[in-house]
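USER: If only I could read C-alpha cells as easily as an amino acid sequence. It would mean a lot if you studied the pair and described how this chain folds. Here is the record:
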Amino acid sequence: MAKHVHLIGVCGTAMASLAGMLRAQGHRVTGSDMAAYPPMSDQLRAMGIPIMEPYSEKNLDPRPDLVVVGNAISRGNPELERVLDERIPMTSMAALIHDEFLQDRESLVVCGTHGKTTTTSMLAWIYETAGIREQGLGIREDGTARWTPSFLIGGVAENFGTSFRVQEGTRPFILEGDEYDTAFFDKGPKFLHYFPDAAILTHVEFDHADIYTDLNAVKTAFKRMVNLIPRRGRLLAFDGSENVTECAAKAFCAVERYGFKEDSYWQAVDMKHEGVVTTWTLLRGGVEFAKLRLPMAGEHNALNATAAAALAAGQGIPVEAIVEALATFKSVKRRLEVRAEVAGVTVIDDFAHHPTAIRETLRALKSAYAGRRLWAVLEPRSNTLRRNVFERELVESLSLADEVVLAGVFKSDAIPVLERLEPEHVVDALNARQVPAVLCADADAIVAEITPRVRAGDVVAILSNGGFGGIYTKLPQALEKLPKAVVAGTLL
C-alpha cells in the first residue's frame, strides 16, 4: 500500500537514492534539508521530489505515515522533535532499505575506507553488461536477464545517470556499504543492516573521527561486517593492507585476496598507465583470467576494478562481460570528474575526504596529465579533515601538487579548538617544502587568487566532499572572462 514517506536530510547521497527508490515503488515522497547542492539535488528535482529548505516543523504537514531520519540529524532538529513529540513512526535509511528492498535478494556489498563508490558502480555496470549480453543471446524465453541488478550507490554512476535502481524479477542487489553510523538512535554502521551474501573490503584506515575514537574502533566495525557473511558467501579482501588482513582473519566464508602480491588469488600484473587509460592482466590462481582495460587514471582505480571483476567472476558473471564492462566504464560524478576546460585550463572535481584519497587522486592526475602544472584546491570539510589528527599526512599528500590553495575549515566552530585542523600549519609546512601554498577564506577568495595566476595547460583539482561555496561554477566562469591570448605560457 502506498504511503507518504518523509526523509529528513534528503540530500545525502544515500538518502536521495532511497527517496527515488521509494518513489519508484509508488509512495508519495517528500524531503527536507538545510543546504541542497548537486548532484543529488538535481537528481531529486528530476524525479519530482520536492526539497523543503530549511528544516521546519511545518515540513511535516500533512503528517507523513513514516519518517526516515538521516544520520546527520540530531536532537534539536525541529522536524525530529515533532516526530518524537507526536510519535510519528520513524526509521533509519539502512533499516528501511533492508526491510523494503533486500528481502529474498542476493546482497552484494562493497565496503572500505576508500573506493566504495567507484567499486560499487563498476560492479553494477559489470552486472548490467552481463544482463544486456544475456538478453542479446536470448537465453531466457521471457526476455528477462538473471544478471540485471538493482543497486544503491553513494554517488551518481555515469553509465546509468543515477545512483540507484530497483529491478523487479532479478535477485542481485549491489550496495555501497557505509561504515558511518546509521541514525541518532542507532550508532552502528549502516552496512550491518545489509547482511551481505558476498562482499568486497577495499581498505581499512582511521576515518570519521567524529564517531570513531581510534583505528581499533574502525576495525571492530569492519570485523562485525565480515562476521555477517554466511559460510556459503565470499569476501574479496585487498592484499595491501594489514588492517584488512586483520579484519578478514576470522571470516567464516571463503576469503579471496586481490591486489599485487604473488600469493593472492587475484593478482594484477603488467599494469600500464597511458594518459587516462590503464591496462593490466588479471591472474586468477596464478593463471591468466583476462586482459583488462579501464578508461580511468590511477592505480587505485585499477584495484577497484580488480575487486569488482573478482567478485563478479566468482558469482558466475562471464569473463567477456567483465572485460567489456570495464572497457566502457564512465566513472562516477565527482570522482576525477572534468567539470570544465576553459582557456586551456582543465578543472577537475574530486570527492576528497581523507589524506589517502587526496594522495591517490593527485597521483592519478600527475600520471594522466604528465608535464602539466597541477593545482590542489582543498576545502577541509569532512569530519576527519576538519580535525588535526591527520595534519602530517595531509601535508604529505598535498606535496604531490605543484600549487596548493587551502580554504578555511568548514564550520570550524563545530570542532573543539584542540582537535581542530589549523590550515595555517599546513600552508607553512608546504611552503617549507618548497611547495607554494596559500590560505584563502572562502571560494570567492580562492577564485580571485587563482584566476590571475593560472596559465594554459594547468590542471586545477578541486577537492571537497561538499558544495564548496559554488566554486565548481565560479572558477570556470571567471576563466571564461579571461582574454584568449596566451603569451609566454601565461594567460593575459
